[in-house]
Amino acid sequence: MSIQGPETAAWFDRAYAAMVNGVSSGWRYWGRNETLVLSRGEGGYVYDSDGKRYIDYHCGFGPIILGHGDPTVASAVAEAAAAGTTFAFTQEREVVAAETIKQAVPWVERLRFTNTGTEATMHAVRLARGVTGRDVVLKFEGTYHGAHDYVMYSTPGKPTEAFGSPYRPLPIPMSSGMPDVVTSLIRTLPYNDLEGAQRLFADYGRRIAAVVVEPMLGNAMGIEPVDGFLQGLRDLCDANDAILIFDEVKTGFRIAVGGAAEAYGVVPDLAAFAKALGNGVPVAAIAGRGPVLDGWAKGGIVQAGTYSGNGIAVAAAQATVTKLMTGEPMARLDRVGHALMEGTAKILAEHGVAATVQGRPAMFGFYFGAGTPHDYRGVAAHDEELYEKLVMGMIRRGVMPSPDALEPWFLCAAHSDEDVATTLQVFEEALVEALG
Ligand SMILES: Cc1ncc(COP(=O)(O)O)c(C=O)c1O
Known about the structure:
Blueprint: H1 6-18, E1 38-42, E2 45-48, E3 53-56, H2 71-82, H3 92-104, E4 110-114, H4 117-132, E5 136-140, H5 180-183, E6 186-189, H6 194-204, E7 208-213, H7 229-240, E8 243-247, H8 259-264, E9 270-273, E10 284-288, H9 294-297, H10 311-324, H11 328-350, E11 355-360, E12 363-368, H12 384-396, E13 399-400, E14 409-410, H13 417-435
Parallel strand pairs: 3-13, 5-6, 5-7, 7-8, 8-9
Antiparallel strand pairs: 1-2, 2-3, 4-10, 9-10, 11-12, 12-14
Bound molecules: pyridoxal-5'-phosphate.
């Protein structure tokens, strides 16, 4: 049974005729009769073209932290749009937003704005290579750092059988069109494998420019770092003059106002922020500390972008971060997220489903299977069929997480206690139906 109502189906027909597969980003295509078209979002809800309301746990794959159409962000953006947005000069709003981010994330000394997570990680990697004069980058299986070629290897969604031995993993490109030569500059390891990283540094230490890591696996079920993993990477980078890059595109301004560095107590050299920074408006930042940023200051390492720091983007960042810094949105996310994590775990246990609910209240994932995975290889045994049936049943009932279990549930501060109650009721009904 299609999840498209008649108006949604008609809109998707038009979308399909005008846009490739009817979407602007490949992962949004769920199938010819299964892809929704939305008309608007408000708070914690989105509405499809038939006017059907969904409690939204996609939150745009992470950006929506305050709620769809948050009035403070909306009016800041409207004001900035009317004042002219793009000047090819530094603008006052940009300076204020940069200062506010420094306050919110105290380890950050300086930053540059850009527009997307992809641009932010791409520039961070180039900067690290530029300042170290080295080419090799270590990344971890099951992390996704954006759509550029530099680090799009062994990403979530790829079958782990192709990844080779965990002792000497094979970096697997995510896409056709990625040049072979780039593969020779990448090393991959299972997430949380500190011993593997120590071995790799022992072999290649002086060739490694950077370690790039999602501090929490925001693209693989919200798996968290085990004790000592992030600090171990910090120590290895320090000992080998390599750059530690946290990809905070999903964790930043979400799992804590100060992101993963605050949540896990480990500070990187560079971090890429995007998503929740702008509550849905495209804005990103490459932020850092110490001499690495002088790589840009001294010239010769290119970072550029016509729209970087544009008025709309920085107004959204300023409004979002200022609101987050009051502490109220995070307190709410924490309460609602805990209730959902605990409530769903209890329902799963009551129905005899072996499962782990893991992550942080603002962003957590489900693994259906025995044990608890600590890396992406460990999720291979996940009962994908049951999870997908459950979620499709929820979507039909008006509650919308991603049917792909790798993608965590994202909460926003507009989700209410009533939404939690509805979600838990729907979760149980859909689970009973899925279990047949
Ligand atoms: C951890 C992480 N880094 C980078 C990106 C790329 O961000 P964008 O889609 O804004 O280019 C994503 C996107 O989902 C992400 O999850």
